[in-house]
Design brief:
It is an enzyme of class 1 (oxidoreductase). Its EC number is 1.6.5.9. Its cofactor is FAD. This protein is an alpha/beta fold and about 575 residues long. It folds into three domains: about 50-165 and about 330-375 and about 460-510, 3-Layer(bba) Sandwich (FAD/NAD(P)-binding domain), CATH 3.50.50; about 180-330 and about 515-570, FAD/NAD(P)-binding domain (3-Layer(bba) Sandwich); about 375-460, Recoverin, domain 1, CATH 1.10.238. The protein has 20 helices and 27 strands. The strands form nine sheets. Strands 9-8-7-4-3-10-21 form a seven-stranded mixed β-sheet. It is globular and about 90 Å long. The termini are far apart.
């Protein structure tokens, strides 16, 4: 009984004072003897490595892709963005006309974060300044929340991921900001939808002249890229499939005009798609004006400079204008670029590993950045020295081939040059420079190698500012962070031609998976890898399947498919909400 009371008091002591807990080992022998040993529990604890803090600016394609794929618990993540959700921007034109509801294409960031094993904190605010030297960012809450002057705060970081996208570029055209709609955010799409319906309601009033009704129902779209073309097609379907049934008296007064400064719309697509789109829009009654550069916008007229007619200035009356051309740099990014000596650039310059040049712990992805791919000719002497292992002063085909994988991985333009010129390998390239010599006996000195590789850098191209590029960059960088410690010990990247050893990671490589251009009437143009072009109804169904599968959650996937089904059965919603 006394023994039981002792253990009862001992147990209560452990429960009341867990910090004084001792490790008790009671080893009882067969004969009944015993040994009592103890030690502090704290002395056997494994020290916990301090977590590195990663700050992510932005919840667009790049930032969300990084967040979704980061799974290393050694990081503590803080996301700072003025919007607390991710938006599936390729479906914004569908939101403008009620084909898809706005709530169907957005996913709260906290829904994404709560599924992560990584510690994630979200702050709804916008970054106003980056202090790279002291590893701090200055933020301001964008909510009118009466914080008594405490709207601004400072966040420290170990790594900074800049994924803030870009602003609309108005090219300083007078009146654009004041009078045009944009189509970059969910709020923009909702505003356009309300304005379209307002135009029909205003034109339906009895006290307006027919000329005024025509002006109100003239919808002008500036920019013949994918967004402008898709919006024009969506608006045409909305008007002809839904609105004319509700407003039969004014259906013949509606006009849609697409203004493009270049010679063709969809200039980044295959010529077959461009020609088909222009022909289809002409058949549908959409007025495509190429060679028309907008020079001024007032509240009722758009002034254009007709480049094909000697620069003649024309004015076009309109009821609603949507500006859908060009991207510009955000103000705080401009300030940051000035700090790090990149003031003359249009976007943040990064290396092939997405690090901002001049800042080892700052990365930039998506529309706010561009990869500054190193040129082969800048490093030709270092490449020659690394490949010439026996220091003979000449390179054989065999020596160059041994370094070929590292060279192509570091300078992808070389591989692209060989492919575009239908060369089977580096031997063909070296043979071309050396002349009619057997491949096995080719030897080149450094000047001859310069001649052989002199045209390689002409294959370098900047990546397009698309969701596909941003998403792949976010995924790539997250995988690098997941394997940071492992690759520090065992680098897996190409040789450092201007240094020793290897790079930690393989450089980022964009893999183009194709692009779509919905043209209305349940027809879509698809340009897929391998120079495969598909146009028509079958491509529309491919578009449906791809855009449904690319949703970030099952919730948004179900909502989008439901909206499409509802539209097929009941038509688009034309109410002004």
């Amino acid at each position: 009984m006394t023994s039981f009371a002792f253990f009862q008091r001992l147990s209560k002591s452990f429960q009341d004072h867990p910090s004084h807990l001792k490790l008790i080992l009671l080893c009882t022998t067969v004969t009944g003897g015993g040994l009592l040993a103890y030690s502090d529990a704290a002395s056997s604890e494994v020290p916990v490595t301090e977590k590195k803090k990663v700050v992510v600016l932005g919840t667009g394609w790049a930032g969300t892709s990084f967040l979704k794929n980061l799974n290393n618990p050694r990081y503590e993540v803080q996301v700072v963005s003025p919007r607390n959700y991710f938006a599936f921007t390729p479906l914004l034109p569908s939101v403008t006309c009620g084909t898809v509801e706005a709530r169907s294409i957005v996913e709260p960031v906290r829904n994404i974060a709560k599924k992560k094993e990584v510690d994630v904190l979200f702050s709804e605010a916008e970054c106003v300044k980056i202090d790279a030297e002291n590893r701090k960012i200055y933020c301001r809450s964008n909510m009118n929340n009466n914080l008594n002057g405490k709207e601004e705060f400072v966040v420290d970081y170990d790594y900074l991921i800049i994924a803030v996208g870009a602003n609309v570029n108005t090219f300083n055209t007078p009146g654009v900001v004041e009078n045009c709609h944009f189509l970059k955010e969910v709020e923009d799409a909702q505003k356009i939808r309300r304005t379209v319906i307002d135009c029909f309601e205003r034109a339906n009033l009895p006290n307006l002249s027919e000329e005024e009704k025509k002006r109100i129902l003239h919808f002008a779209i500036v920019g013949g890229g994918p967004t402008g073309v898709e919006f024009a097609a969506s608006l045409h379907d909305f008007v002809n499939e839904d609105m004319i049934r509700l407003y039969p008296g004014i259906k013949d007064l509606v006009k849609i005009t697409l203004l493009e400064a270049g010679d063709h719309i969809l200039s980044m697509f295959d010529k077959r798609i461009t020609a088909f789109a222009e022909d289809k829009f002409q058949r549908d009654g959409i007025d495509v004006k190429t060679g028309s550069m907008v020079v001024k916008v007032t509240d009722k007229e758009i002034s254009t400079k007709e480049l094909k007619n000697g620069g003649e200035i024309k004015t076009i009356p309109y009821g609603m204008a949507v500006w859908s051309t060009g991207i510009g740099t955000r103000p705080f990014i401009k300030d940051f670029m000035a700090q790090i000596g990149q003031a003359s650039r249009r976007a943040l310059a990064t290396d092939e590993w997405l690090r901002v040049e001049g800042c080892n712990n700052v990365y930039a992805l998506g529309d706010c950045a561009t990869i500054n791919q190193r040129k082969v000719m800048e490093d030709i002497a270092a490449i020659f020295k690394k490949a010439d292992k026996n220091n003979s002063g000449t390179l054989t085909v065999k020596e160059f081939q041994e370094a070929m994988n590292d060279i192509c991985e570091r300078y992808p333009q070389l591989e692209l040059y060989l492919k575009n010129n239908q060369m089977r390998g580096i031997a063909d390239l070296l043979k071309e420079a050396k002349g009619d010599v057997k491949k096995e006996s080719i030897e080149l000195n450094i000047e001859e190698l310069k001649t052989a590789l002199s045209k390689v850098d002409s294959q370098m191209k900047f990546l397009p500012a698309t969701a596909q590029v941003a998403s792949q960059q976010g995924t790539y960088l997250a995988k690098c962070f997941n394997r940071m410690e492992e690759c520090e010990k065992n680098p897996e990247g190409p040789l450092r031609f201007r240094g020793e050893g290897r790079h930690r990671f393989k450089p980022f490589r964009y893999k183009h998976l194709g692009q779509f251009a919905p043209l209305g009437g349940e027809q879509t143009a698809a340009q897929l890898p391998g120079d495969w072009v598909s146009i028509g109804h079958s491509s529309q169904w491919l578009w449906y399947s791809v855009y449904a599968s690319k949703q970030v959650s099952w919730r948004t996937r179900a909502l989008v498919v439901t909206d499409w089904t509802r539209r097929f059965i009941f038509g688009r919603d034309s109410s002004r909400i």
